[in-house]
Amino acid sequence: MKAFEIGERKIIDIIWSILEKDNHLLDQVLPHPDDASAIKLNDHYILLKTDMLVRKTDIPKGMRMEKIGSKVIVMNTSDMISKGAKPLAFLYSLGIPRNFSIKKLKSIIIGMSKKAKDYGIKILGGDLGEADDLIISGFLIGISKRIIKRSGANIGDIIATTGRFGNTSASYKILLEGFYAPRNLRRKICKSIYEPNAKINFLSICDYVTSSMDSSDGLAYTLNELSKSSNLCFKIYNIPIAKEAIEFAKLNSLNPEELALYGGEEYEIVFTVKKDKWNEVLEIAKNKKFEIIKIGEVFPGRGVFLVKNSKEIEIPYKGWEHFK
Amino acid sequence: MKAFEIGERKIIDIIWSILEKDNHLLDQVLPHPDDASAIKLNDHYILLKTDMLVRKTDIPKGMRMEKIGSKVIVMNTSDMISKGAKPLAFLYSLGIPRNFSIKKLKSIIIGMSKKAKDYGIKILGGDLGEADDLIISGFLIGISKRIIKRSGANIGDIIATTGRFGNTSASYKILLEGFYAPRNLRRKICKSIYEPNAKINFLSICDYVTSSMDSSDGLAYTLNELSKSSNLCFKIYNIPIAKEAIEFAKLNSLNPEELALYGGEEYEIVFTVKKDKWNEVLEIAKNKKFEIIKIGEVFPGRGVFLVKNSKEIEIPYKGWEHFK
To answer: Known InterPro entries for this protein (chains A, B) (predicted)?
Structure first.
């Protein structure tokens, strides 16, 4: 049997079943699946995250080298902050081909270095090796007094996001499927994949958050994962769609909600907050000048539903998967 | 300019000069170059290490999948323990081709899982992605009250190793250059590269160690790096050569000392100990049933010298380098 025949999620299940036999999963502070791993040390949690970038599969054509470097920081940081942990230190494992240009390599490191500095992360070291293709693995360590899990939502909680969705799907439609967008719109849309950013400001509200997850597998997948983890029903009243994605959808007769739900590589945080704390959270976000958007509410039951014209339509549990 | 035109060490220098500009290297507890990185947290040090394995360049032909998995643990553990830190938790970043066999993947994970368990390390999680070639990046976190640096040796210290050298060089001569060894000898020699092991018992003596380094870049390189880091002269009276390497050298008219000095991928620890503590250290090693070998002594001055028939021959600063 080959990897592509069973897909990423089944492969991960196989890996975890092996690790389980050797008791690696016993007493884990932040058990699989969650956005990061953790160990407890005295009265702190040490959070650990690794995320790998492979040129062929994870880097869109036309992305600048500097932005590739910064993306490795973004990917790892987004998962780390979604657990409420302040990222501290970063290590890289860098694989490059023998004939890789040193100029390109410099740009990658400059991008990595700058973005880490922006987020208050120190790059402490790494490993360099020879590979057939450009591969960058990032390892991030962070610290927190409390961990926000994927589970933890309560009935009545507000469901919210740190931003709007749909531009990454639109970018892939433009770049891979030849869909049309006028130059200016195209530039704005593609910024979502060429210049990704982690919502580091989320840390300022995370004391109020009951559950959360990074949305890089897509909004629909993220909502379903959160709902399943808390064993509760998520009702969505308002899909947070980027205005550029709406304009692009209109131009191409596409459904903007589909673009927003089934994207991926959007480094937004999807989270829940106790209803009576929402205004307080909104106030903090306003003061810190970042957007948070109320999109729904948690109910008893199962599944994720879009409530529209008093009908409830199920939002299916699907998202991006490697090898498929 | 291309990577192979300047080689691994110069590339690393370029990377570090960029990181330096953004202050990533400021106030580092364990500054570059050393075997691992570290941050201080209350009264503990958190040690961090990443090491990457690429099938094409780092895995000898004929190595079993299970041993490839265990090698990733060994590589990272060896560096971690050489700094005196107890390894705690491990994350992997695994890149595999689309058509990679699931059976092989399982074997890799089984090897990784078992070896981690042997060393008391918990595998907490990881990342899985698509790559052209098998690539495994390991990320290890450990903890210690005190860090053993590469610098730290004093005049009069004993220089020692946790084992004997030469078998990995001999293996590569057999596998890559077609040198001869009878079947039984060949099997024993090649075990050094097919079934590497980290000297985890080193942790039991590390309170007495003044400086140390993992020897995976070769014995000559490691001794020179230690001597340079402490700004002292290392005089070697006894090169610790594996008896199989001696036999192999005799059969092929090779110099066994050369095999021992310029190998690599030997996961031994090279370390220094205060002279008056040597017998105590020897006693601990005897009780814990592992070998440590006295090979020389630290003197004022610079460089590494082999003392032989009252002559001093300089041991040059060379070792394995990627891209060259």
So the answer is: PurM-like_C_sf, PurM-like_N, PurM-like_N_sf, ThiL-like
Fold (CATH) for B35-144: 60s Ribosomal Protein L30; Chain: A; (3.30.1330)
CATH entry 3.90.650.10 includes domain B158-314 = yes
Q: How does pLDDT run across A155-190, given as a tens digit for each residue?
A: 999 999 999 999 999 999 999 999 999 999 999 999
CATH class of A36-144: alpha beta
Q: What is the pLDDT of residues B222-231, one digit of tens each?
A: 999 999 999 9
User: Would an 8 Å CB–CB cutoff place A89 in contact with chain B?
Assistant: yes
Of A14, A127, A132, Cβ closest to residue B133: A132
CATH 3.90.650.10 domain locations along chain B:
158-314
Question: Alpha-carbon distance A90 to B223, whole Å?
Answer: 29
Q: Classify burial at A259, counting beta carbons within 10 Å of its beta carbon; exposed 0-12, middle 13-18, buried 19 or more.
A: buried
ipTM of the complex, rounded to two decimals: 0.94
> Considering only residues 34 to 73 of chain A, which have any Cβ-Cβ distance to chain B shorter than 8 Å?
36-39, 41-42, 44, 46, 48-54, 56-58
Torsion of CA B177, B180, B182, B185, to 10 degrees: -50
In degrees and rounded to multiples of 5, residue A320 shows phi and psi of -65, 140
